[in-house]
Amino acid sequence: MDIYSSALSPALDIGTGFYLLFVAVLSIVGNLLVLVMAFKRSSRMKPPELLTVNLAVTDLGAAVTMYPLAVASAWSHRWLGGDSVCTYYGLAGFFFGVASIMNLTVLAIVRFIVSINLQSPKDKISWKMVKILCLWTWLYAVIWALFPILGWGRYGPEPFGLSCSLAWGQMKEEGFSFVMTLFSFNLAIPTIIIICCYFGITIKLYITYKKSMNNSNRIPNIVKLHRRLFVIAVLNSMGFICCWTPYGLVSLWSLFHDSSSIPPEVSLLPCMFAKSSTVYNPLIYYFFSQSFKREVKLLPWLCINPNRCHASNNIADNSMADADCKPRVPERSTLVEIPGCKTVSLG
C-alpha cells in the first residue's frame, strides 16, 4: 500500500485543496499587513509589541513554507515528494506550532508583568529582554523540532495521505515518552500559564477599576488601554488553543488506540482546523482595533479615495491599535487635554 496516496475521495481532495488555498491567502495577506503596519510605526513601537510581530512572523512562515505544498498535493490526489519532503513538512509544522504557542505564553507573561503597576510611566520590559525572549521562542522550537530527527519521536504521513506531521500512530512504544513530554511542555503547561496570567490581569484591572470608581467615579484611560490589550491578547491565545486542541486530542487517542480505526475523513477535520490558526490573529486585530483597520484601509494600494489617502499622511495616530484618548469639548469651545493620554498597542 502506498502510504503517500490520498485516502480521500477525489472530490474531497479538491475541496481540501481549495480550503487550504483560501487559508493560505488569508494568512499571508493578513500577517503581511500586520508586519507592514509594524514597520510603518517601528520608531514608536513599545517593547511588548515586538512579540506581536514575532507571532505574525511564525504564522506567515507556516503559511509560506507549508500550505502551497499541501494544496498541490491535494489537487494531485497524493503527497508530492518522498520521505525527505515529508520530514521537511512535518518538521516545519511542528517548528512553527511550538514557536507560536511559546510566543503566546511569553506574551501572556509580559502582559501580566506590565499590568502589575498600571500607573507606572516606565517600560517594565526592556527592548533587550523582549529580543532575548523572541530569540528564546525560536531556539526552543528548533530544539523540539529536531528531536524526531535525532531519534526521539518520528515524522510521517497523516492518515488521510495529503500532508505529514508527527507519526502519532507509530509512537505507541518507542515514542510514548516523547509524546507525553511534548503535550506537557508544549500544550498543557503553556495553557495553564496563559490562563493564570490573564486571570491575574483580570483581577488587577478589576481592582484598579473599583478604586478609580470610588475616587473619581470615572474609568481612567490606563484601565481602558489595558482592557483593550487584554481582550486582543486573550482572543489570540484562545484562537490558537481552540484550533489545536481537537488535533491534539485525536493524536492522543491514536496513541492509545488503533489509529486505522479512525476514518480518513474524520482525521482530516482537526488537521484542517489546526491549519486555520494562522489566519485568526490578523482578523482579531482588524475587527478589535479601529486604528489598525483605519490604517489598512488607508494603504495606497487599498485606498479607493486618493484625497482621503493623501490627507491621512497628516494624521498623527499611525498606531496598530485604538487610541484611547479623545479630546473632550466642554460647554465652551476650548479643547481640553486629557492627562496621561496613551495609545493602545497590540503588544
TrEMBL record:
Residues 30-285 form the G-protein coupled receptors family 1 profile domain. Keywords: Chromophore, Disulfide bond, G-protein coupled receptor, Glycoprotein, Membrane, Photoreceptor protein, Receptor, Retinal protein, Sensory transduction, Transducer, Transmembrane, Transmembrane helix. The chain crosses the membrane at residues 18-39, 51-76, 88-114, 135-155, 175-207, 228-247, 267-288. One of its GO terms (biological process) is phototransduction. One of its GO terms (molecular function) is photoreceptor activity. It is a multi-pass membrane protein. It is found in: Membrane. InterPro entries: GPCR_opsins, GPCR_Rhodpsn, GPCR_Rhodpsn_7TM, Peropsin, Retinal_BS. GO terms for cellular component: membrane. It holds the Pfam family 7tm_1. This is Opsin-5-like. It comes from Gouania willdenowi (Blunt-snouted clingfish). The lineage of its organism: Eukaryota, Metazoa, Chordata, Craniata, Vertebrata. The gene is LOC114457862.
